[in-house]
Design brief:
InterPro entries: ClpS, ClpS_core, Ribosomal_bL12_C/ClpS-like. The chain is an alpha+beta fold and 112 residues long. The chain has helices at 40-49, 55-68, 78-94, and strands spanning 27-33, 70-77, 100-105. A three-stranded antiparallel sheet has the order 2-1-3. The protein is elongated. Bound molecules: L-tyrosinamide.
C-alpha cells in the first residue's frame, strides 16, 4: 500500500466562475406600538436616544404612531433590530411605561 494519498482526479469537477458575494442580508423594521399611558415626551426621548432621530423626526414618528397605532422607527439587520427592541423594552420598564416595541421582516428589502 502506498504511503501517498490517491491522486485527485479533477476530470469530474465542474469549474464554476468565481462570483463575488453580493447578496444583502435580510432587513427588519423595528416598530413602536401606541398605548394610552406612555407619555409623548418619553416616546420622543426613545426615538432620539435609541434610534438617533432628530427631535423633529422623533416628534413626527411619535405622532404617526399615536394616530395610526404603529410606526417604523428604523430598518436594520436582524441582530441590530433585536438589540433595539430589547433596549426599548428595558428603557420603558425602567421608567414604568407600558410602551411596546416589536420587529417584522422588511418585505420591501426582500429579493432584488
Ligand atoms: N398615545 C400616547 C399618549 O397619548 C402617546 C404615545 C405615542 C404612546 C406613541 C406610545 O408608541 C407610542 N400619551
Amino acid at each position: 500500500m502506498s504511503d501517498y494519498p490517491e491522486p485527485i482526479n479533477n476530470d469530474d469537477l465542474a469549474l464554476e466562475t468565481a462570483r463575488p458575494k453580493l447578496k444583502r442580508p435580510p432587513l427588519y423594521r423595528v416598530l413602536l406600538l401606541n398605548d394610552d399611558y406612555t407619555t409623548m415626551e418619553f416616546v420622543i426621548d426613545v426615538l432620539q436616544s435609541i434610534f438617533h432621530h432628530s427631535e423633529e423626526k422623533a416628534a413626527q414618528i411619535m405622532m404617526h404612531v399615536h394616530q395610526k397605532g404603529a410606526g417604523v422607527c428604523g430598518v436594520y439587520t436582524r441582530e441590530v433590530a433585536e438589540t433595539k427592541v430589547e433596549q426599548v423594552v428595558q428603557y420603558a420598564q425602567q421608567n414604568q411605561h407600558p410602551l411596546q416595541c416589536t420587529m417584522e421582516p422588511d418585505s420591501d428589502s426582500d429579493g432584488e
